Amino acid sequence: MEEQFIGFNNPDFETVIVILDASESAEKDWSVIVELAKKIFLKTPAEIEKKLFFLSNSQEFEIKKFESNVGKWWKQNCKKGSFVTPILNQVKNGKIIIIGSGIIYDLEDWIPSEISKRLFFVKTSESMRGDLEIGTEIDIDSFDGQLSNLYNRILSVKISGDDFLPYYWDNPDYSLTFGDDITLNSTKSKNFSIRIAAFGENIKASVEKGEGTENFALQSHETELPGIINLIENYGMKWQKLEKDEIETFKHHLISEPVTCPSCGNVITRSLKCNNQDAHGTLLGWRFYRSLTKNKKGFVIFKDCTDGVFFKEYVSDVIKIGDETVAINKKSKAVISRYNAHTKKWEEQEDLKLYYPLTGGYYVSII
Known about the structure:
Layout: E1 3-8, E2 16-20, H1 30-43, E3 50-54, E4 57-61, H2 66-77, H3 85-88, E5 95-100, E6 119-123, E7 136-139, H4 143-146, E8 154-169, E9 175-177, E10 183-187, E11 194-209, E12 212-217, H5 228-234, E13 240-241, H6 244-255, E14 259-260, E15 267-268, H7 277-280, E16 299-305, E17 308-313, E18 318-322, E19 325-329, E20 334-340, E21 345-351, E22 356-357, E23 362-366
Parallel strand pairs: 2-3, 2-5, 5-6, 6-7
Antiparallel strand pairs: 1-11, 3-4, 8-10, 8-11, 9-10, 11-12, 13-17, 14-15, 16-17, 16-23, 18-19, 19-20, 20-21, 22-23
């Protein structure tokens, strides 16, 4: 089965460019124009870049100083007329929102341009585009309902493919869903970028946006797939060292059958904690490795070497443990799953043993 190390990069959010009309035809609506601009600045998500201009003026104004300086800026721009070319000449991308009233005289020059599709005219009284078929005109009464459509924000990402099963991903905002197809999903994340090591072919990202859905084929960006030890060593958390008494527990557990709690002697089978409530007074189980993060749940990697025994948390809920073989975190335990080439399905096998050997002194456990 094919394996790939692939990535999805968070697309750059569109810039929102706000252009205010300070001309004579919009003077009576100036207070409304200011309030609409403030709404855009307030409600546009922080990760989306915002820029502010005035008609006929190529100078960009600092939005952080808008409320304290807008009156002064109006005086600077009220005699300049209604022309959009000085701004559009320097705008490379993003949606352009012009708030005002009365004809903009040079719009016809921009009808053949790609920019014309990104123009939005918020009309406070009179049309700014007149009879020209250019951009989208928004009446002030429908402004609030249209505001969220002025940027095309990513709502969710779903990653899937033929025989897809990821065994490493570096973004904790993603979670794995098992069904007819296995998918890696994220919603409402601030950053959807992710790197993935996975089994499968034809892997794609389905990106749901405020305006429709786009599909992206994900291509491997490594000429050689990193092995599981390489992934463990070079990605994710840093190694931490067990305390001396914890190292003794670890060494004893590797040669013990069965594995027992170092405190009460209770037999340990599925995870790195003892469930003897009478001995430890906890319903959630007693963690006999104090060094492990208190609320950590999931896979833990141990490295036994000459300098001691080290551990690190594994960031994903699936880990590769052999050829076409993985362990899957089932919350209270981990289960080994192997790929069946005849059924083309991942099939669950036995539970993962408490210290499962990988190679070269590395072991994987579940907590």
